[in-house]
Design a protein that fits this description.
With 260 residues, the protein is α/β, with parallel strands linked by helices. It contains 12 helices and 8 strands. The chain has a single domain, classed as TIM Barrel (Alpha-Beta Barrel), CATH 3.20.20. It binds phosphoenolpyruvate.
């Protein structure tokens, strides 16, 4: 793989997934604090993913800033219609989002989302012009059984099925080992690097070497201010998807402004 710094096109992405937290006033206050704390962060793309209900308000208040807005999920259907409770990708775009997270392990585990479902959401999101942060990752059981790579490969291939080379430019992969999410137990930089290099290889095998070299792969799972720099020094780690530590603007800003 290309050593870090050689592959200039892979601008790091540090994304905060707020999950089901924050009423609108709190979301706006957090976003406005963050806005000044990361105003000079030109080394990476800063992304936050508020809940649907706060998305437009936060996006409006951050207009003109260097913070991008992501949704946490989208409907698999592109066409508007009778899908109670769903939000279409173009509606998210309309509300100010330019990114969307799909296939988060909480959705796979608690809402039975399959790779096919993730693939449909991905296609709908790309059609609406959103950049997709597609989450993949194995459970502890799968890792201990020696199946981590096979599981991640299956999720990747399933989620990316039928996408064109043009579509793939809009894909960011987030490797989030399920055993590291919200547990305080982060993968070591070496463990994460090993899987990231594998993901890049799988992507390159399926879609060509250039696509592989250009793919941004984020690590997610208990990322904190004290472990981000070590992760970011790995050649195939191009950023982070941060859950718990993204809720506090000071803490998230320390992650964004990691020691480079
Ligand atoms: C996540 O939910 O995507 C995540 C990585 O959570 P945490 O940082 O809290 O482990």
């Amino acid at each position: 793989m290309m050593p870090k710094g050689v592959e200039q096109s892979r601008k790091p992405v540090i994304a905060g997934n707020w999950k089901m937290h924050k009423l609108s006033a709190d979301a706006v206050a957090t976003a406005l604090s963050l806005r000044s704390l990361v105003a000079n962060a030109n080394h990476c793309e800063v992304v936050i993913a508020p809940v649907f209900t706060a998305l437009k308000t936060v996006a409006d208040r951050l207009e003109g800033s260097n913070i991008h807005i992501s949704a946490q999920d989208c409907a698999p259907e592109a066409k508007h219609g009778a899908h109670t409770g769903e939000v279409a990708a173009d509606m998210l775009r309309d509300a100010g989002a330019t990114y969307v997270i799909v296939g988060h392990s909480e959705r796979r585990q608690h809402y039975s989302e399959t790779d096919t479902f993730v693939q449909r959401k991905t296609r709908a999101a790309i059609a609406a012009g959103l950049t997709v942060i597609m989450c993949v990752g194995e459970t502890l059981e799968q890792r201990e059984a020696g199946n981590a790579e096979q599981v991640v490969k299956g999720q990747l291939e399933g989620g990316l099925r039928e996408l064109t080379v043009t579509d793939l430019v809009r894909i960011i992969v987030a490797y989030e080992p399920v055993w590291a999410i919200g547990t305080g137990r982060t993968a070591t930089p070496e463990q994460a690097q090993e899987m990231h290099a594998f993901i890049r290889r799988v992507f390159a095998e399926g879609h060509g070497q250039d696509a592989g070299n250009n793919l941004r792969i984020l690590y997610g799972g208990s990322v904190k201010p004290d472990n981000i720099a070590g992760l970011m020094r790995q050649s195939d780690i191009d950023g982070a998807l941060v859950g718990g530590a993204s809720l506090d603007p000071e803490v998230f800003a320390q992650i964004v402004n990691y020691d480079r």
